[in-house]
Amino acid sequence: MRLVVTGRQGQLARALLERGEAAGVEILALGRPELNLAVPASIASALAAARPDIVVSAAAYTAVDAAEDEPDLAFLVNERGAGEVAAAAASLGVPVVHLSTDYVFAGAGDAPHAESAPTAPASIYGASKLAGEAAVRAANPRHVILRTAWVYSPFSRNFVRTMLRLAENGEEIAVIDDQWGNPTSAFDLADAVLAVAARWRTAPESFAAGTYHLAGAGEASWCELAREIFALSAKAGGPAAAVRAIAGAEYPQKAARPKNSRLDCRLFAKTFGYAAPPWRESLRKVVERLVAETGERV
C-alpha cells in the first residue's frame, strides 16, 4: 500500500516516514516544487504521478499570526489547495485524510469539543482551515477530516523544541496558563492516520468517511506542558528552566487563540480502533530523544 502525504518537511510527514515501514505501508512525501498548494495547477499532476492508494493532506499555511496580514494566501493554501488535493484523490479513486485543527472552534467553555460542536473560528487561520474542511467534503466523498491540536515532535518548529532551546539560556520563561488543550505527539497522529489507511486497505466497503478528532489523552495548559517538558529534560540530562505562569492577555498576539482547545476523541477510537496514549507518556519519548540527539539543534 502506498500512502502519499503532502508537506515533505512537516511534522506528520516525517513521523509517517518513520512509522510506515513497521505498518507495512510505503510512505511517499510530496512537497515543493513538484506539489505547491499555493500553485493549484501543480497538485493533480503531482499526485497522479505518485500513484497513491490513499492521500494524506497535511501541508497547510500554519503561520497563525501572519495569516491575519495574508488572508488571501491563507485561504488559497488552506481552502483551495486542500480542495484541489481532495479532488485529485477523488479523480484517482482513492480516499483523502485531511488534517485540520482545534482553531475551527472559538474555545468557549471547559469541556472537550465533540465533532458536532458549533464551529466559530476567531482567527483568519482558523477560518481558512474550516473553509478547507468544507472544500474537502465537497470534492471527495471518501474523506476523513482529522482535527488535532498542539502537535509536537523531534522535527521542525514546535512548542517542545522551542522550550528546550529557550532553556539553554538559563532564564525564567513566562508561559500562558489560561489556555488548555491536548498535547499531541506527531507519532501518535501518524499512528492514527495509519489506522485509517489500514481500514481502507482491509475493509474499503466499511470505510467510515466523516470528521473526527484525534489528540493526546489528557489535558494541560501551556504552562503545565512547559513544566513537564523541563522536568523530563532534566531527568534525561538536558536543559531545564523555571517557568512563570502568565495570563494570555499578558502575551499579546495578533491572532486570537482558543482558550479551550480540548478535543473529544472518542468517536475516532470507536470507529478506527485507535486512541492516542496519555500525553505525558508520548512527551517523555520525544523529550528523551531530543536530549539524546545531542548533534541536533533544538
Key features?
298 residues, alpha/beta, Rossmann fold, 9 helices, 39% helix
Mean pLDDT across all residues, rounded? Answer: 95
**What's the alpha carbon Rg, rounded to whole Å?**
19 Å
CATH superfamily of the domain at 2-157 and 184-217 and 261-277: NAD(P)-binding Rossmann-like Domain
What is CATH's topology name of the domain at 2-157 and 184-217 and 261-277? Rossmann fold
Q: How many strand units?
A: 12
How much helix, percentage-wise, in residues? 25-40%
- List unreliable stretches of 5+ residues: none
The structural class is alpha/beta
CATH architecture descriptor text of the domain at 2-157 and 184-217 and 261-277: 3-Layer(aba) Sandwich
Order of helices and strands: EHEHEHEHEEHEEEHEEHEHH
Total helical segments: 9
Polypeptide structure, described:
With 298 residues, the protein is α/β, with parallel strands linked by helices. The protein has a domain at 2-157 and 184-217 and 261-277: Rossmann fold (3-Layer(aba) Sandwich), CATH 3.40.50.720. The protein has 9 helices and 12 strands. The strands form 4 sheets. Strands 2-1-3-4-5-10 form a 6-stranded parallel β-sheet, with helices on both faces. Helix 1 (11-19) crosses helix 6 and helix 5 (159-167) packs across helix 7. The two termini are 34 Å apart. The model has no long low-confidence stretch (mean pLDDT 95).
